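Prompt: I keep going back and forth on a fold encoding question. Comparing notes only helps if you start from a blank page. Show me how you would write down a chain together with its backbone fold. Please set it down just below, with no commentary around it:
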Amino acid sequence: MSIGLVASEEFRVLHRFRGAQLRHKANGVFLCKSKDSGEFSKGVKLLTDKLEVVARLMHQGNAWGRVVKAFSDTQRKAIEFVLSDEDLIKGFEASLFKAGVDFPLGAIVLGPRGTGSVLREYVAAQKARKVIELRDLSGWVPNRDAYLLGTELLAGTSDLMPDNSDKYRSKFQENSTLKQHGTIEEWKENVAEVCLKNPVWVTSILTAFAAPLLSLLGMQSESGGFHFFGHSSTGKTIALRLASGVYGQPLIPWRITANALEAQAQLHNDRVLVLDEVGQANPRDVMEAAYMLANSQGKGRLTKEIELRESHHWSLLFLSSGEISIDDLARRAKTGVFEGQRLRFLSTPMIEHQLPVAEIHAFDKSIQCLHGTIGRAWLNVLLNASTSDIEDWKSEFVKHVSFFSKRSKDARIRRVDRRFGLLSLAAKIAQRNKLLPDSWFEYKDDSRSTPVVRKSLVAVKRAWLDGAEVDEEQGTLSDTKPAARRLMEAVSTSIGSGKILGFSEKEDGRTFDVEARGAVHGYVDQSITGSETLFLLPDFFKRHCTPPGEREFCRELWEEDILYRAQPGRNRIRMRTVKGENLSVNSQVQCYQLDLAKLEAFTNNELTQTSEQQELFRKG
């Protein structure tokens, strides 16, 4: 912008400086200097229109910044932008340029003072009548009487609801990405109806519906998610688009840093976080992210003053997809999947849809065209709910959980049942408010025992049980089989590389058939073909049995007649002196003795003893 001298008679004084005035005229904002005669000059044009502080921003009880209304020369319209106190002091000119406000940068306009200094004083001197609380988190505001959907504040439609339209603002700028298109009836007919073709699609939509209920019902500890995996063209991406389309939000790629993922968790607080293609992410980052997202707390950090900064908290449900399971991802990361990760991040095989390709393309187009409207309608239902309604929902939640947990004996599986119960409750509330089609709640058999929506949730739960090799009837949720597979793979590799030494019984002791190459992991008795016995050294064995841990792993292997115990309760045995050329082995070698054939059968699901066989083995 060039500096020009413009004459104008009508004006309003915006700010007074020593020896000058900032005047708002019909064609812009001018800095007019006083003359010896007492009159003012025509002025130097600084802005196209005035800068108006419309609100003062508070953050955690402290002054934080301002909401400034300005004319953006770039966009050719009036806009509002957030100006922090720090930017006012150190980055004021950059903030104006970022907002598209043109002014003569670097011009000396008042003594030694430049344009930026003059405008900064003008903005800082303004007193705003309105005070807005700046929120680090989206979602429910205090007292649950409003909801921040990105930067859009929803306050319900009830006459009893307080007016919070100007009281809160999100720290995040997301208006441009939260889209809304189509009507509720169009979404029900063209999206929700088709979802019944696949139970995973139903679960995805209900996960998006259930996420705001966590904080509303005081169930923040139930945060968690689903990971749907399977080969290409099974409907994984459609499942994610269905969930993100409820609120009109974008898919988030897994390939982001831990700090960025933490920021996304804050942005999606009290909402569903949808993460696409886990195979693109660092495997170790994914394993840590499962804990971080479900634990609802970010990483502890220090401030510039070396003081402990307050950790961010959130409450959400999350969805993920990829071609590999969480267990496969853990193997790539060369680590195990702990029980807590399995319960928080339900790794579920995809249930393939039966739609023709042409219908899939039409369905995908409907998802992309109809989004955002149903989510806002759902949030308005929750906003207008009374205290008694919420208490009724809490009681009803217990009944929904009991439906899924009536066959579950293990407390850990019942924890998963609570998540399915929450999804079922969300479906019921949505049905009462006519946000889901009636076909979701029809009965497909004469018994009228279970509606379609519940059958879909049951099918997804069974898919998770099968994928995790969980026995719901017997109440077992064990990490032993995954650990046994890891151990079996490591044993096979070590035998091939000469790290596990083979030997046969001889009269003069034990004679090794191969020469050791570096560190030895163990030994294998090959005296009887097909009945090989493994002797594994402790460091090697323990490396592959966590989770579930050495004690629990040995107990279950012993119950399956895989591990030999010389004495009750003692998992390791002492090998007698071994002999072999170029070998130096102590006479007191402690090892874990395992039946190689039974270990292999166990990992292939071919070895399952009956309770009577196990009891005879313990006595024998």
